[in-house]
Design a protein that fits this description.
The chain has about 260 residues and is mainly alpha-helical. The protein has a single domain, classed as MetI-like (MetI-like fold), CATH 1.10.3720. About 80% of the residues lie in helices and about 0% in strands. It contains 11 helices and no strands. The radius of gyration is 24 Å and the shape is globular. The two termini are about 45 Å apart. The relative contact order is 0.13. GO terms for molecular function: ABC-type phosphonate transporter activity.
């Protein structure tokens, strides 16, 4: 009978101590101070009280800006899907050779590693202020994220249908179109809907740097200390995102 290995080996103890050390060091360099948070609670409450009652006098203007934000999310997500599909196929180990997979994954890493705000600042220089810069920023970042998620879905497929298509003498492209894509479309759609929700939220912040959407009004009212207007904008934004989340969640439940 083989001797059972003790659960608490020197490696597991060392790993636990290392994890604790990393957490403590991360807390120090992150300047975590829950005492300061508790002490500042009163000031935070006083600020929040200034948000009420919300001022909906300009609600139609805010609503139109929210529609612009949704439009930015739609186009940013659509362009990202168009680019992410071929990149995800090239980044899948069960489809392409390593010399193709490795550089493609690094490209996807670079696309999603940089925040949308940074991309927005870059595109503002190219196309000027406005929602188009925001669309391009969302597009690049989302393409990197969806490319990664799509490739993981491809690598998790059942190889049976692909092998069956290959046995008929089909080309690599036919294997992808008829053997892989039908298996991953429901999951791809779910990922896309989730990223659309996320992009609407992100688009609402891009206005801070002049990239259009409701973020412009939000930033201007914050700077002018018009907190009641800020409250109205936030309420409209919360209701909008909640409605999008409810609709997309029902679609995802039907697909997956």
């Amino acid at each position: 009978m083989a001797e059972e290995k003790p659960f608490w080996t020197i490696w597991s103890i060392g790993g636990l101590l290392l994890s604790i050390a990393i957490l403590l060091y991360s807390g120090i360099i992150s300047d975590l101070s829950f005492v300061e948070l508790i002490e500042g609670t009163g000031s935070m409450v006083n600020l929040i009280l200034k948000f009420f009652p919300p001022d909906f006098l300009r609600w139609w203007s805010y609503f139109q800006a929210t529609i612009e934000t949704i439009a930015m999310g739609i186009w940013g997500t659509l362009l990202a899907v168009i680019v992410a599909i071929p990149l995800s196929i090239l980044a899948s180990e069960n489809v392409c050779p390593t010399w193709v997979v490795f550089p493609t994954r690094r490209i996807l890493d670079a696309m999603r590693a940089i925040n949308e705000l940074v991309f927005a600042l870059i595109f503002i220089v190219a196309v000027g202020l406005g929602p188009f810069a925001g669309v391009l920023a969302l597009f690049i970042h989302t393409a990197g994220t969806l490319g990664k998620l799509f490739s993981e879905a491809i690598e998790a497929i059942d190889p049976g249908p692909v092998e069956g298509i290959r046995a008929t003498g089909s080309s690599k492209v036919q294997e992808v179109i008829f053997g892989i894509i039908p298996q991953v479309v429901p999951l791809w759609t779910s990922f896309t809907l989730y990223r659309f929700e996320s992009n609407v939220r992100s688009a609402s912040v891009l206005g801070i740097v002049g990239a259009g959407g409701i973020g412009v009004a939000l930033y201007q009212n914050f700077r002018a200390f018009n907190y009641q207007n800020v409250s109205a904008i936030l309420i409209i934004l919360i209701v909008t995102v909640g409605a999008i989340d409810t609709i997309s969640a029902r679609i995802r439940n039907r697909l997956v």
